[in-house]
Task: structure prediction
Amino acid sequence: MALAVYFSRCSGAFDGVIDIERALAGIEESAAVVRVVDDFFEPAVVDRMIKDVANAEIDAVVLAGHSHEHYTRSLSAHALQDRLEAAGVNPNRIVAANVLEQVGLAHPDDSEGATRKAAAIVKVAAMRATMAPEIAGVHIEPRHAVMILGITVEAVVAAQRLLRLGYSVILADRLDGGSRAGRANQMRATSGYVIGHPNAQVIDDARLVDGEGWLGDYSITLESPQGRSSYRVGGLLLARPDHTEWVDELRTHFKVDVDDDGFARSIDPFTHPAETVDPGIMVVPIRRADALERDKVAAADSAALALVLRLEQESVMHYQDVSAVDESLCGGCATCVRTCAFGACSIGDDGMSHVDIRRCRGCGKCVVSCPVGARDIVSAPHDYLLAAVRELATVEAEGDKVLGFLCGGCGYPAADSAAQAVAQRNEGYPASFMPLRIPCGGRLDTLYVLEAFKVGFDGVCVYRCREGHCHNLIGNLDMDRRINLLRAVLRSRGMDDARLRIVDISPFEGERFIESIEGVYATLGTLTNGRGGAQ
Result:
């Protein structure tokens, strides 16, 4: 497989910290193309990458620089990956190696440790790019229909915008939203236009009882006094992000991040105030109770525009980043059916487990629960995760070495946020802390923890979403149960189970992330037995 590795200096953000030449020394033999650039997002650099893909017939790409999160949280950063995909590189083989937020900015006072860590992270990313299978895609022609949950001033404004653009709109409310919609004097005409429009439908006393699908094509089932009805829409707009009942019902079927109050949270309040983790679900930015009408209109416009920009595409490609089944191993025991919180698994007439790709969220709980190892997650394969643990263990370090499993929902972005906390402290955390991203806490197999101790890690930390905040509902709690059982195994092998820690964290708690690492290192030396467990 032809691999290309691009290392960005990120416009000099970590000059003097990472020795790039040394960091790339171990990868040059296995890569067809290795280039160091000033910034990935310069047009000439992107053009050079596209030429490399064609000339060297590149199958896999490592982008060593910005965080994985950068490509979803920064405006148009995803365009780089889109160009690579269009050039023929499968998206499952385009991997970000985070040498900026989790290395260069995290360890400004330890150049040697940062360089070693960067080298390891690039190697692990190369493993991920070359070991992961290609994933298939499904083209969707987006439906020009939107369901708005909660009837507010913002909902009416967004509906008016959408209707004028030729969209069909379904407005669902917990109470009698239709009569409340026109109470604001300045909104009477707007409300009358929306409620009387032939392409608008108002459903009162509604509950969302089922949902599946993706951007451009969702199937949503509502229950109201008139019974249950299903609707096909291209996107959803949550006009009441602080209405926790709507939020809870959405989260039962789709990935929606929430804050400490249980309110729906956008992926970034500054660059993407209306966009959620699910690209087809928008949220009106949280407003103050005393907000002016103009602010409410602006918030509605923000959410409506964000959704229209997605739905106006001629087609949307959905790649099947889901759980895969090895039918040669599957015995049809239905453990996966009982485990999946989204109802994505079923046993077919052939006695085998099957995955509903419109419901699967790729969390990995079914993979860990399968008693015969018949399942795997295409974006985080079992063999890759084991190989990554072993590779990270080879990094030379003075003193203790800790492996951190970072869940994609909260742990990984918290590690990114820690870079800002380091800048304020002007002091980094130990560079011998090695991060490894997993899709969800539910994907963590206890085998990976045991392997970490076996190959020499002195401690293992698992960073997971707080209770009630998991993007995959209960992936974090399922992981807790497995880890607690593992503690007994560790003690039976003569190891202090305090070497294994679970840290609840939210995406923006960078300071807490650092404090947890410092706490682990402070106590490791006081625990029974030595490096890597009992001697």
